[in-house]
Amino acid sequence: MKKWLSLLTLLLLLLAALTSIPGLPPGVDLRGRWLQIHLIVATPLAILIVAWIWFHQVRLDLVKASAWLAISTGLGLIVIPMVGLTGTESTHHWVQGHGWLSFLGVGLLGLSAAMAGRKKVTELKR
Amino acid sequence: MNRFLFCLSLMAFLSGNLPLLSQDSTWKRTDSDGPYFHSIQLRDSSGRVIDPSAPDPALPDLSATCAPCHDVVAASGGLHGGGGPDGKAGEPWFLMDARSATGLPMHHRSWPALFKPVDLVTDGASWSETFGRHDAGGNAGTTIAGSDCLVCHLAEGYDFAKRIEHFDAGDFSTAPFIAAGLIDGEGNYDTPRFDSDGRINLDLLADAGPDACLPCHTVRNLETAENPRWLHDEDIHLSAGMTCVDCHRSGIAHHIVRGYEGESHPSELDVSSLSCRGCHMGDGGGHQGAPKPLHQGLPPFHLEEIHCTGCHSGPVVTSSAIRQWTSRAHRLGEPSQKRDSTTPPRIIASIWRDDSGKLGPVRLAWPDGWGLLDESGVIRPIAPDLLRRPLRKTLRVRANLAKEISARLSGKDATELIHAALLEIDESIEEEGVPVFFSGGRVLASDGAGALSEVSSDAASAVRWPIAHPVRPARAATGAGGCTDCHSSASRWLSTAVGPMSILPFPGALGASSPLDENIVDGNSWRSWSLLFGGRDVGKVYFSLCAILAISGGLLALWRSLTEEHR
């Protein structure tokens, strides 16, 4: 996968995370302008996630694979209320699940990057 | 010492139980859920039993007739009788007078944008004559008519049209008996209905059904060619067999539960389960099997920002700002050929954000009339009686100022005529203040040079009160057709401009605005959502496909990495 696409995916992931902050604390769902921006960011991001997962040439390590699975599951969780399969009261839980899983995924990606960086430094030292 | 202590404890015991003892000894109760069969004797105002077959029997008195068994003093008050806390704004009374083009919303409660009855209705007799037809009694002492128990509790045989007729004629004390068919207009008893003891069987019930409430509480969308009356639906609760008092309950004090969220009931009891949300969305399911709505697909904050009635009552999305009649404002219940789409007051249903910040449907109306502007900028309305002479002298109005003047002007503006009337009012009314005319949301005064100048005042601003009925079921609610019921350019729910109408033609534009214009709902946000929702269905498919592909890819990647590590 081309590097600029990877960077774009990561940038959009960060933007999606940032635009979801007004939805915190838990119990206050994201709404209004921020939700619109979040959706606008999420629309290309969704297909980029798919592309990243399916067309990434390098085999993923466990942490990175877990990160992408968490992000993908987060995407899946928000689709459930979006297609009208949940009642309003339980929608809160699905939205929150989406948020926490996505944050977890982004966090794991960061961890994976940090681990890879450390590994590279160690290899260089050798 | 012991004896003293014994006496003291006995007194303490008795005083502690006095209310219970007095209640038991004063009022008989069957304590059965079944109705009590009322075979009763009518009594005159001094409490003496009336023998209807006697020559020249006394006229009956309702309070004295009911008092032997019921606490009529308590029953005459309560929220229904105008007592108790003011609470959320409710429907005002409209003082209507066609001869002076007066249409003033008023109430003794301190609700916003209302005139005070004390400025307009001089005494209890004039209150009863003006509003008694639709006032069951009490009304915080503004009426002299006394409470009419029969209008609410007589399940069958109450002729409401007769009640109106006799209240208009000033027969306040006998009107309930005439309407119930117990006596005729001359005061003669319907003797065949009484037995040899002078008793009469009356179908009196604590809950006499919706028919007992609707004469005073009907609200009707104005009939149009596209929306004829026979196609109007009634409240879903009534269709389901419920009655009004299933939710709007009360004890003998008649503090009838109003049923809005956060209501503080004078009894200090928790009545939250008698609101829409309390009944349908309470913990553990709807109250007594009330359907608990799922609102599938509805983002949760809608329930935080919109009253239940926002979608389940009031204007429907396709025809916002409908015009309505109400019983009290338009004398519904009175047979009339004169009631038509132009009959004032003009009451419009629209959407508003209330003090709690929630959106909900409201009725709104603008006042018309004449007043005196004092130095502090306050406008006191002038009672129609005081306007008769000056208006007749300058405008030569016989019965209907607006219609007669409009016909005479045939399209020209009414500035000159109203200016002349204001000058005449200034001369003929002794009270201090600058005479003003208000209509169409504007207050106009003489500029001293033959023209009218606009006065800045909120005296002509709209009065609003929430709409709660008729309630539409889920399938007919706003949003049943999806998000685009509201979030589309086809939705008129929020975008229809509503404004006042001047009763007479004046130069200058009248302000009309939609809930979007008034920022009741953020217009830009609403329009951008409408744009986004155009592609909502495509979006659902797109995100679903992405989610499926991403999850399956993610699982595959995880499996691969696990097997890789295993090797």
| Spatial separation of the terminal alpha carbons of chain B | 98 Å
The first-to-last residue Cα distance of chain A is 29 Å
Shape of chain B: flat
Mind telling me the C-alpha Rg of chain A? Answer: 16 Å
β-strand amount of chain B: 5-15%
Rg over CA atoms of chain B: 29 Å
Succession of helices and strands of chain A: HHHH
Mean pLDDT of chain B: 86
Number of DSSP helical runs of chain B: 19
What is the gist of this entry?
The complex is a heterodimer of chains A (126) and B (567). Chain A has 126 residues and is mainly α.
Describe this structure in words.
The complex is a heterodimer of chains A (126) and B (567). Helices cover 79% and strands 0% of the residues of chain A. Chain A has 126 residues and is an all-alpha fold. In chain A, helix 1 packs antiparallel against helix 2, helix 2 (32-55) crosses helix 3 (62-82) and helix 3 runs antiparallel to helix 4 (88-125). The longest helix of chain A has 38 residues, at 88-125. Chain B has a domain at 369-461. Chain B has 19 helices and 14 strands. Chain B has helices at 2-26, 62-66, 72-75, 117-120, 124-131, 149-153, 160-168, 175-179, 210-217, 236-239, 276-280, 301-305, 308-312, 327-330, 384-395, 401-409, 415-428, 523-533, 536-566, and strands at 38-41, 93-97, 102-106, 199-202, 219-221, 323-326, 347-353, 359-365, 369-373, 379-381, 434-439, 442-446, 452-455, 463-466. In chain B, the strands form four sheets. A five-stranded antiparallel beta sheet of chain B has the order 5-6-7-8-14. A five-stranded antiparallel beta sheet of chain B has the order 10-9-11-12-13. Chain B has a two-stranded antiparallel ribbon with strand order 1-4. Chain B starts with a helix and ends with a helix. Classes of the chains: A mainly alpha (126), B alpha+beta (567). Chains A and B meet through helix 2, helix 3 and helix 4 of A and helix 12, helix 18 and helix 19 of B.
